[in-house]
TrEMBL record:
Pfam families attached to this UniProt entry: Amidohydro_3
Stretches assigned to the Amidohydrolase domain: 55-540
InterPro entries linked: Amidohydro_3, Metal-dep_hydrolase_composite, Metal_Hydrolase, YtcJ-like
Domain of life according to the entry: Bacteria
Protein name (record): Amidohydrolase
Keyword terms of this UniProt record: Hydrolase
Organism expressing this protein natively: Microbacterium schleiferi
GO molecular function, one term: hydrolase activity, acting on carbon-nitrogen (but not peptide) bonds
Length: 577
């Protein structure tokens, strides 16, 4: 259907025409942008639709997520115990008790979101979990996504009590003095292997895609129309194909295949249209997570009440926290450089970033690709130094930053975990933009709830959840922050020709807002309401999407609404300084 769409204002993110009165859409694509008369001339006889929204923008792009796995981990029948729902360890244990009371005794249980720093508790070992759950199979995933904790029943199911496995490449298992496993696993290869029996039990239940459907709804409710899967493996292909094929499917997905999978470099084929589902690159992990204590930093973790409660050892983490040696990194990149995939490297600490940039420079240089449009990515980069951003720009590396790290953990980072000069400047937005980089923002799947607008607020105000101001000189502008979740994020996914701005020829993917982000007080950007989204020229009906899946029953869908963006993510706004 041909349609002319209007709103209080249309913010295009196109520098040639920043504002418009109307946008004309035909066959899912934009054919005109400008005045109502311009659009009527381009599409005579088109239906006119006034959204009633204060502002219409290009749909937000979340360039680093994990939709299916996040849904499986956080949504029913799993339990989300992140600090925004369970602020203390006592609250976590209360959630454990609730789950025990409301489920059959033989049902495996999965919990996601333990955070030793915010919940002030050391890693729970198998004996500690056994004391709560007895001989039930239980998996707790760390909120960083880099750790898992299981009961002895899970280790027995895996056959690992008597025959503990060796550590996989890129991960390791916690061990007792005698070499037996203690139920703690760190980094994706180990954490996922240990959690597999419980995740498989959930996936083979009566509604295996229920969590994924609900997480798609959560992402869409935040205004997101395109995102990625940064922990893709072939076993997830059918799930993504099913979700993409449903009526009113709300998200375009770009896949990043885990480098630990044997087929990570192989081509991707699917009957699903490429504009809805495509493989974009390969995902690799350089170091760990700041919140777990295994980030490769040159600055020391401090010896404070904060780090002691979380079980983080003081001192300089250093290069020993790298998941791969430099030779291994070079070999991984060399193995895939000829395939044309975009490489996406998780790297939080400054040492990890240095080593990744060294590896990028070596391998790209060896193949004369430094000046090519390779767009090799570096993810998170919370502990980056100022000098590292110009270096990224010099080799064409593309940074995707996580304002959520600063927003939720800023008070702990600044003086609790690291010295203020390091922790206070965590997520150096200003340095990144000043280097001329196409900076994008993300929430990293279930690590924090999907909140593009709150990410923008954090970057612009440099105020964390408590309202405390940290390193104001690192603030971004409103325009930069909006670009980080629109045109720049589309560029990071290699899709700027399709999405990210309202321009002729691109997909008609929009988000309706109840306020103009440029017009509100900056510390209120996160409170702007999302009224709905459009995908390919049609307004998304999330209820129809959920109903079409035959996965989500009414009770579960109602519970999802309690996890909605306003409820879980809009913490009290900070007061202006």
């Amino acid at each position: 259907m041909d349609v002319i769409i209007t709103a209080g204002t249309i913010i295009t993110m196109d520098p040639e025409r920043t504002r418009a009165e109307a946008v004309a859409v035909s066959q899912g694509r934009i054919v005109a942008v400008g005045t109502v008369a311009d659009c009527q001339k381009a599409l005579p006889g088109a239906t006119r639709h006034d959204t009633g929204a204060a502002a219409l923008l290009p749909g937000f792009v979340e360039p680093h997520s994990h939709p299916v796995l996040s849904g499986m981990a956080t949504m029913p029948p799993a339990y989300w115990i992140a600090p925004w729902f369970a602020p203390t360890w006592d609250d976590v244990v209360a959630a454990f008790r609730t789950a025990i009371a409301e489920t059959p005794v033989d049902q495996p249980l999965a919990f996601f979101g333990f955070d030793g720093l915010l919940q002030q508790h050391a890693d729970p070992t198998a004996p500690e979990l056994d004391a709560i759950f007895g001989d039930r199979m239980v998996m707790v995933f760390g909120n960083s996504g880099h750790t898992s904790y299981v009961t002895t029943a899970v280790l027995e199911h895996l056959g690992w009590v008597k025959n503990p496995p060796t550590d996989p490449v890129g991960g390791f298992f916690g061990r007792n003095a005698d070499g037996s496993l203690n139920g703690v696993a760190t980094e994706i290869p180990a954490a996922m292997a240990q959690a597999a029996p419980v995740l498989e039990a959930i996936a083979t239940g009566p509604h295996p895609l229920q969590g994924a459907v609900e997480y798609y709804v959560l992402l869409s409710s935040a205004g997101i129309t395109s995102t990625s899967e940064h922990t893709y493996k072939t076993e997830l292909k059918s799930a993504y194909e099913t979700l993409a094929s449903l009526p009113n499917s709300p998200l375009r997905i770009s896949l990043y295949h885990m480098s630990t999978e044997a087929d990570c470099g192989e081509p991707f084929t699917s009957a699903v249209p490429e504009d809805m589902l495509r493989k974009q690159g390969i995902k690799l992990w350089a170091d760990g997570s700041p919140w777990v204590g295994n980030v490769a930093m040159s600055s020391p973790y401090l010896d404070t009440d904060v780090t002691r409660a979380a079980g983080i050892a003081p001192g300089i983490p250093g290069e020993k926290m790298m998941n791969y040696t430099r030779d291994q990194l070079d070999a991984l990149l060399e193995a895939h450089v000829g395939e044309g995939w975009q490489m996406a490297f998780h790297a939080n600490g400054d040492i990890a970033i240095d080593i990744v940039l060294d590896a990028f420079t070596t391998v790209l240089g060896r193949h004369n690709l430094i000046d090519s449009d390779h767009r090799w990515r570096i993810e998170h980069i919370g502990g980056a130094r100022a000098d590292q951003f110009p270096r990224m720009a010099s080799i064409g590396a593309v940074p995707s930053m996580g304002p959520f790290q600063f927003y939720y953990w800023g008070d702990l980072l600044d003086g609790g975990m690291f010295e203020p000069a390091v922790g206070g400047s965590w997520q150096r937005f200003r340095d990144a933009f000043d280097a001329g980089l196409p900076v994008s923002f993300h929430n990293d799947g279930s690590v924090t709830p999907p909140t593009p607008l709150l990410n923008m607020q954090a970057a612009v105000t440099r105020r964390c959840a408590s309202g405390t101001l940290h390193a104001p000189e690192q603030a971004a502008t409103v325009d930069e922050a909006l670009r980080a979740h629109t045109v720049n994020a589309a560029f990071a996914l290699g899709r700027e020709h399709e999405i990210g701005s309202i321009e002729v020829g691109k997909f008609a993917d929009f988000v309706e807002l109840d306020a103009d982000p440029y017009a509100v007080v900056p510390d209120k950007i996160g409170a702007i309401g999302v009224l709905g989204t459009w995908l390919g020229g049609s307004r998304v009906d999330l209820g129809e999407f959920a109903a079409a899946s035959h996965q989500v029953d009414d009770a579960a869908f109602a519970q999802l609404r309690t996890y909605g963006v306003p409820a879980c993510c809009h913490l009290p706004a900070a007061t202006a300084s």
